[in-house]
Structure formats: structure tokens, C-alpha cells
Amino acid sequence: MSYSFKGFARKDGTVGIRNYIGVVSSVVCSSVITKEIADKVPAAIPITHTNGCAQLGDDFQLTKNTLLGISANPNLHSTLFIGLGCETNQVSGLLESAMKTKPIEGIGIQQLAGGRNTVIKGKTIVEEWAKEVEEEKRVEVPLSSLTVGILAIDIDEESLTKVTPVIGNVVDTLVDHKATVIVGMSKSLEPAGALLSKRAIGEKLQQRLQEAGEGLKRRRWKEITNTSSRCDEFSSSEKSYAAVEAHLTGSKPIYKWLGYTEQPNQKGLHLLTVPSNLVEALSNMAASGCNMVMIVSTRGLLASSIALPCMMITPQNSHVPFDELTDYTVSENMNVNHVEKVLEMMIDICSGKQTSLEKFGLGEFAIPHIGTTF
């Protein structure tokens, strides 16, 4: 069976499933102005965060890379960076490093002598881009144009057992149709490293996954001396849960374990390091190029991504408090082809149908800190 959807073709060959104008703050201090500009133009979304000021080293680079990644996401038609002027994460540095395959500009509050002038200038720029957005039409494109994220969060093992066979087969189908799939490699999945390593392409990835499965990446150590170190092994319950979660990755070869905000350079199945914080994980997936994310959860969640449609998938459960936020429920009805149903809904969402979370206007963005700010 062939699959296709209707998306927005970009000049760099990628395809967006939404056509947003991203108004992006370079620093927390410009967040209010960023939101004010975005609120004045319907096609615009505000991408704000708490970082950008007094950051150094890897902590600063993570913030910069995340903002560069989100600006390059194919769901964004264009990007306007809004800075203050005195921050570590300068707009000029973002513009210098950003991909030039789409409209992208930057302005600063101090350079324009105040917030009011910045709002006027920013609104003028965004309104011009909005005219282009309004004229662009969706075109039929193959499934190979799509990058889909898979993320399991806030889900118990029993619920996971009900959902993983369906999502695993969805992942396999996407890979068979040359799509790109990025599965969130959370701490809960690491104990399954040895299991995943059997499908890894290349010795380095195999070794890295095996080490993760042995607990060598953990921060808690049982014994450290000058001559040896021994890590605290994963518990039997952690290993059991991870083995079930591993089924979310399907059965196809794993090409790479991507670092934070790293984008895959080939089609197929990849893993991506993600934090336990949902919004930070989704922001990371957006920066890594995902068009959308399938979230697997026990009961639905009250959070989403500002730039990505998030399709919420839950098992049939009589105790689901957020069922109005669920897009698809995996029932125990054996006569239902859940894999096809999920794919059909995914294609509808990629072609413009709003997810339940989008209908509620839920969308956030966040970047973690990996060091001390000064």
C-alpha cells in the first residue's frame, strides 16, 4: 500500500506539515516582546525560553544549537530572532550560523531603542512573510518526506505492553516507506541497550548501546577507586520496563544515536537523547527536524510542542482523566487494524487536521541547562 500526505514543499527539499512563522527570542529578556509580535500576526508562533543570558561553554552552545535547530525545522516558513542586545546568545551569532534556505532575520531591542520600536519593526517583517504564507498551498508528497518522532512518557508497564506492538509496527511501516523515524532514547529505555544493539549499524553504535545497557552511562556509581570503577546495575524492574519500551522502536536497523538537537543525515530509524521533561524533550525533537511526534502515554498529557503537532496515543483505560486530549485509543478489539488506523490519522494530521492538543491551544518550548549561569 502506498501512502502520501499534503504538505508544504521547502526550497531545501524538506516538507513542512505546518506553515508557521517563528518569532524566536534569543534570550529570556526578549520574551515579552517576542510574544507581543507573534500575537499580532495569526500565522506567527512565539518561541520563547528562559535561557540565553550569562551562559558559557556547552550550556551556551546547547541553547544556540536548539534555537538554530528549531529555526531550520521544516514546519517553519520563516524565522525572526528577537534579541535584547547585551545577552551571551547574540542575534548576530544566530544569523551567522543559521541555514539560509528560508527567510530569516533578526532585530534587537537595544539597537532599536526600545520595545515599542521593536514591536513595530518586527510586526512589519512578519506581516510581509504572512502574505507569502497565505499564498502557499499544500502539495501531494510521499511518506518519505516525513520525519516522525516517537516518545513514551508517563506510562506504566501494563499500558506500554498494550500499545508497543501497534507503534512498533507503525515505525516499521514508516521505515519501509523511506520515512525518517526518531525515537526518544530516555533513561528508562537505556537498560534495553544490549537488546537494541543487535540492530545497530556499525561497531561504535553497538558498543555505545551495550554500555548504556550495562549502566555505564549512569550518574550513580557503586564504587570508584584510583584503579577501577563499578557502576550500580539496573534493577530487574528497570530492565523489564525497558525491554517492553524497546518494542516501540519496531524491528528495523538503527542507524544512529543522535546527540541533543542533532539532525539525522539519512532516512530510516534513529535514536535521540531526550530529557525526562516532556516539553524539553519535544523541543529537542523539533530542533532535530521532526515534523510531528507520536506521544505514547497512559492517560494523556496537558502539554505539547509549540512547533510540532503531537498525536496522543493511549491504551484503552477506564481511568483516563484527560481523554479529551487523546487522539487515538488502542482498544482490545482484535477486529480493528490499529496500525492502519494510526497511520490514517497520522496522514490526516500531516495534511492539516489539528490534533486534540492543538485544538486546546497547548504548545510550549523549553531548553534545559547543563551548567551554571553567571
- Quick one: overall form? globular
What is the total number of structural domains?
Answer: 2
Q: How much helical structure, as a percent, in the residues?
A: 25-40%
Class inferred from helices and paired strands: alpha/beta
Cα(first) to Cα(last) distance is 56 Å
Structure write-up:
InterPro entries: GD_AH_C (IPR048332), GD_AH_second (IPR007392), UxaA_altronate/galactarate_dh (IPR052172). Belongs to the UxaA family. The chain folds into two domains: 20-135, Rossmann fold, CATH 3.40.50; 143-216 and 235-361, 3-Layer(aba) Sandwich (Rossmann fold). α1 (31-39) crosses α4. The protein is of the alpha/beta class. The chain is globular, with a radius of gyration of 21 Å. The protein is built from eleven helices and 16 strands. It has a seven-stranded parallel sheet with strand order 12-13-9-8-14-15-16, sandwiched between helices.
Task: List the defining traits of the structure above.
374 residues, alpha/beta, Rossmann fold, 2 domains, 7-stranded parallel sheet, 4-stranded parallel sheet, 11 helices, 34% helix, 21% strand, globular, Altronate hydrolase, hydrolase, lyase, lyase activity, hydrolase activity
